[in-house]
Write a structure and sequence with these properties.
The chain is an alpha+beta fold. Helix content is 35%, strand content 21%. It contains 25 helices and 43 strands. Helix 16 runs parallel beside helix 17. The longest helix has 70 residues.
């Protein structure tokens, strides 16, 4: 206690025992005593609480006149601590701690310790003490200790914990402007401990500190960059192309961190400081109209700033930013004129732009109508033309009414003609359908009783074509693996070990994961690996299904974790699982195809082919008069005749009749040969027929007999270097002519056009030529005159240049058929030429298309295929529930993508995958339209149709709703079926494996192809196995290494040039399959 006054004794001895405070002795400090003017004493402990207030008494003697009593009172109090906040802070200190209680201002001084570390007092009142923590050498959790002068007290119930200092992981963006104020996201840990974080930037010897950051979460704070105030004498100033790169850090509660931009993991490692943006002022007052946007021009607007750093106000109210670019920003002003601002004399609110820490006044925005307050003269100048325009409008309206009456009469006449044409088209469709059905029944009738006329491929050929569509004739799995006889045993042991590993679930899943996690594992590789795995696992379909379900589950998990669009799953083969799913359906649906659905598909193919061949088809462009595809529609009109010719029977067929064939006189010779082969061998599979390129066509009605050829010496050269392919009309072949198919004499007749070595070409400007010349697989496009002058340009029916003039007119014809828009009488007359176009083809084939779709989406007849579909669809339903997917459209899309779109669409577009027929290149356009109709039927989205919509959608616009009902009913019926248990499914799959045990591929060849992939990703697979505890427990890493050692030993001595481990050495063909014990 310090007592100041006068006459306070003349020596220490006189005052040594003279002072009392609240009747308690106060010990005088001899060294602090100042004679007669100041006494410093230390109070003694009060024996009892003294709540009352008493004065301080200085009694030099017992006499009253030597006694002084203070005006101020003194009392003994007991400090009480109620609470403390916060109760934790970073180890480097700087945390402001507030202690609340009573009588906290007792004593002369106070010292506070938290967890044994001094806390510097900042402020003290009766009920509150504020202090700032010091740094701690360790992570501690201790009590509060307070010393009031020399008296100390510990509070065990009030504790403070030092925690790890905050850490920084990333700062985004690392950009700013000279004026600062740009918000950056700072990510790290421990930010909730901070109270006063600031961003600091170092520029040479200067340190600039930004405003206090905003702590959002424990791992995120928002900081604004400081203003640099770059001095004029600085050697380098920032530009848009070369910003200043400055070091930066943070001041956390008064403690500055190291240069944070130099820490590892930061992208730019410096803060890039750009010049302040330039905002252009308005050249004049801008006018606002309802719904308008305000555009403000400038430069470098988005060099460092983002939308959250920019604030545009109109009259003090925000203008919502909608777009930001380097040289302009756009915002939406308030819909009404702001009323909060004190406007200037013109009452227009001003527009302010604030970017970071710099503000711009760019001009004024007027809410008045532009042109308001016009002079009477100007109003008259505007009003008179307006009245004239209105008068002219009424005159035009009267003229239009008269004209429309005449137009309506003409439209009624046109409608009657269109109705007549449509009735004619309908009649033709019925007649064509009846003819096709009769022809099909007749073809079946000529066969022996019980003989099927549908040329189904064998199970092995069918699966080969679907699994390996680009190489189904010569894929390695279709032949034995050729190895050196001396190494055959070693190779067999290595591949058997590999097969045994593949039969282990953990190894196979790790194998697939290791490949798919590699970014160089391309889409075509995923398809190939998926197909090869199905070849290896075909004999264990139950194990194959277990693996497939796990891979599909992981694929769905990845899609949901990455928040990708789940509806596109299974639409494309972008993973091994998706390819295996398509192949799984392929294998299990074969029986359903041969017993039921395949017949309807073949009937559609056969009907489509027969109907298309009734009209002309260009041998080069493949455009046809009868087509479902507008792109493949032959629009040009020309005269042609239908002929019936006879193909002479073979000499060795005694008593055989000549075969009648319907042809067109505009058919090329190769097209005629194809039709003759179809008639003569109509019940023979395509692979058993002679090739059209191995036969010549002889006209026997002529004298002497002549060989008909696509190109020969009689072919005429036309202006422009064109040469037309020969037709029956070129040779003047008459009705009922007799033709003969003779083996081609290679030395004399190598005269077929369109060879694979062809150098003839068509001009690229042909709008209807959708396939490059010579790339079609049709038999009429398989050979070319080797000694012909390559300067000639070939065409068949129409020169490519002749298409351009009629495209627009033909498009109008198509639209009349599809949308029934009214046209002029001249355009309507062209319907007589084109009446058998799209609608005729659609009407003829519609019953066949409906039959196919009905059998595809039918669950009425229970069979193994439907049970497999039920099993897989239930799995997809379970996955949707597991991931909380409540949208029915998502599961609908999964089912549609996996079965109709990946399986049925593939077979519709490629019927030669199922039947032993010629590759249907000529029918590609029509088959694609049917496939597209199937896809539209499976879609849940509504498409608004207009006259500009694709013709394929317009053709089936009325039917698509019925087809969608079939799809929904099909999915509903399958959902309502009794669930298939895993035991029942495994029994069904085992039976499926046994039923095709003789139709297997060459497993060693498939294993060899898979091993080539394994070699590329063996290191990734090794890591995957080492991290899989189940694989380690089963010693799979060691077994994998043993297999590699065996195979690599073989590869060192006998590696082929193609980079594979096992090649074709030609000394001995090893034929064999993995033993049964290797498949377990």
């Amino acid at each position: 206690m310090i007592i100041d006054g006068v006459n306070l004794g003349h020596s220490f001895k006189t005052v040594e025992e003279a002072v009392t405070a609240a009747n308690v002795r106060c010990d005088v400090d001899e060294f602090s005593y100042i004679t007669a003017s100041r006494i410093v004493c230390r109070t003694r402990q009060s024996p009892t609480p003294i709540p009352a207030r008493y004065p301080v008494v200085v009694k030099l003697r017992e006499e009253h006149r030597y006694t002084a009593i203070s005006n101020d009172s003194f009392t003994y109090v007991d400090p009480v601590i109620k609470n403390m906040e916060p109760t934790k802070g970073p180890r480097f200190g700087g945390t402001n701690v507030t202690i609340r209680g009573e009588n906290l201002d007792a004593g002369t001084s106070v010292n506070i310790f938290l967890s044994g570390v001094r806390c510097a007092v900042l402020n003290r009142t009766n009920d509150k003490v504020e202090c700032r923590t010091g740094p701690s050498e360790s992570l501690t959790d201790g009590y509060l200790k307070i010393s009031f002068d020399s008296f100390s007290r510990e509070y065990d119930n009030v504790r403070f914990r030092y925690e790890e200092n905050p850490t920084f992981a990333q700062v985004i963006p690392e950009r700013s402007i000279e004026s600062g104020g740009i918000t950056v996201d700072v990510m790290g840990t421990g930010f909730k401990l901070l109270q006063r974080p600031h961003m600091i930037v170092r520029d040479e010897k200067r340190v600039m500190k930004g405003p206090q950051c905003n702590v959002i979460r424990d791992d995120l704070i928002f900081c604004k960059t400081p203003s640099l105030e770059v001095p004029h004498n600085r050697r380098k100033h920032p530009t848009a192309d070369e910003p200043l790169l400055l070091s930066y850090g943070f001041e956390l509660d008064g403690v500055r961190t190291e240069d944070i931009s130099q820490l590892s993991g930061f992208r730019m490692r410096h803060l890039a400081v750009f010049p302040d943006p330039v905002v252009e002022k308005f050249s004049d007052v801008r006018f606002y109209r309802s719904g308008d946007y305000l555009t403000i021009n400038g430069k470098y607007l988005d060099a460092a700033a983002s939308e959250r750093d920019i604030l545009v106000t109109v009259g003090g109210e925000p203008c919502n930013l909608t777009a930001l670019a380097n040289r302009a920003l756009t915002c939406q002003p308030p819909p009404e004129k702001p009323k909060t601002q004190k406007f200037s004399y013109d009452s227009d609110p001003d527009v302010l732009v604030k970017i970071g820490g710099v503000s711009y006044r760019v001009g004024y925005l007027s809410y008045s109508m532009k042109g308001a307050g016009l002079s009477p003269h100007l109003m008259g100048a505007v009003l008179i033309p307006t009245v004239c325009i209105i008068g002219a409008f009424f005159l035009l309206l009267i003229f239009y009414r008269r004209k429309s009456t005449s137009h309506m009469r003409e439209m009624k006449h046109l409608k009657n003609q269109i109705d007549q044409i449509e009735m004619k088209v309908a009649t033709e469709c019925k007649e064509a359908f009846a003819e096709l059905q009769t022809s099909m029944n007749a073809m079946a009738a000529v066969l022996p009783l019980g003989t099927p006329f549908i040329p189904f491929l064998s199970y092995k050929e069918y699966t080969a074509r679907v699994l390996f569509p680009n190489n189904y004739h010569n894929h390695p799995v279709l032949r034995d693996l050729e190895v050196d006889s001396q190494r055959a045993h070693a190779i067999e042991m290595g591949l058997r070990a590999f097969n045994k590993l593949l039969m282990n679930k953990h190894f196979l899943l790790s194998f697939v994961r290791a490949m798919e996690n590699n970014k160089y594992f391309l889409g075509k590789d995923r398809v190939s690996v998926g197909s090869l795995l199905m070849v290896v696992l075909m004999e264990k379909m139950e194990y194959c299904t277990e693996i497939l379900k796990q891979l599909l589950k992981e694929l769905i998990d990845r899609t949901m974790e990455k928040r990708l669009q789940p509806k596109i799953l299974f639409r494309r083969s972008e993973s091994v699982a998706e390819r295996m799913l398509a192949a799984w359906y392929t294998i299990l649906m074969y029986k359903y195809l041969t017993e039921c659905a395949g017949r309807k598909l073949y009937e559609l193919y056969w009907a489509m082919k027969q109907q298309m061949e009734k009209g002309p088809q260009d041998a080069l462009t493949l455009e046809a008069r009868y087509s479902l595809s507008e792109e493949k529609l032959l629009r040009s009109s020309f005269d042609f005749r239908k002929l019936t010719v006879f193909i002479a029977a073979d000499h060795h067929s005694s008593g055989a009749m000549d075969y009648p064939v319907r042809v067109l006189d505009c058919d090329s010779i190769t097209q005629v040969k194809e039709k003759c082969l179809d008639a003569k061998y109509r019940t023979t599979a395509f692979s058993d027929r002679p090739s059209v390129n191995d036969l010549d066509l002889e006209l026997r009605s002529a004298c002497p007999r002549i060989i008909l050829q696509d190109i020969d010496s009689t072919s005429k050269v036309e202006p422009g270097g064109w040469r037309r392919i020969n037709t029956l009309a070129h040779y003047n072949v008459p009705e009922n002519a007799t033709l003969a198919l003779l083996p081609r004499q290679a030395s004399l007749y190598n005269l077929s056009i369109l060879s694979e070595r062809s150098t003839f070409s068509l001009p690229k400007q042909s709008p209807t030529l959708t396939r490059p010349f010579g790339t079609t697989s049709s038999s009429q496009c398989k050979g070319l005159l080797s000694n012909m002058d390559s300067n000639y340009k070939l065409y068949h029916l129409v020169r490519p240049s002749e298409h351009g003039s009629s495209d627009q007119q033909d498009k109008m014809v198509t639209e009349i058929y599809l949308t029934r828009h009214a046209l002029s009488f001249h355009s309507l007359c062209t319907l007589g030429i084109a009446r058998n176009l799209l609608l005729t083809m659609k009407g003829t084939l519609q019953k066949f298309i409906q039959n196919l779709l009905e059998v595809i989406f039918s669950a009425a007849a229970p069979n193994s295929a439907i049970r497999c579909v039920k099993y897989m669809f239930d799995f997809m339903d379970d996955q949707a529930r597991e991931h909380g997917i409540e949208e029915n459209e998502v599961v609908h899309a999964w089912k549609s993508n996996s079965l109709p779109l990946r399986f049925w669409v593939n077979l519709i577009k490629n019927p030669h995958f199922v039947f032993d027929i010629q590759k249907p290149t000529k029918l590609e356009g029509c088959l694609s339209v049917v496939a597209q109709t199937l896809m539209d039927a499976c879609s849940t989205q509504e498409h608004q149709l207009t006259k500009d919509s694709p013709s394929s959608k317009l053709l089936f616009a009325k039917d698509i709703y019925q087809y969608r009902d079939w799809v929904d009913r099909y999915y509903a019926e399958i959902r309502q079926m009794r669930p298939i248990s895993d035991q029942d499914m495994n029994a069904l799959l085992a039976e499926e494996s046994r039923s095709h045990s003789r139709d297997r591929f060459h497993i060693f060849s498939a294993l060899n192809e898979l091993y080539k992939y394994l070699e590329q990703y063996k290191e990734s697979l090794r890591e995957e196995l080492d991290m899989n505890q189940f694989a380690v427990n089963q010693k799979l890493p060691q077994k994998f290494q043993d297999m590699l050692n065996t195979m690599e030993c073989v590869g060192e001595h006998y590696s082929n040039g193609g980079g594979g481990t096992i090649g074709s050495f030609g000394h001995r063909v090893y034929r064999g399959r993995p033993r049964e014990e290797d498949r377990v």
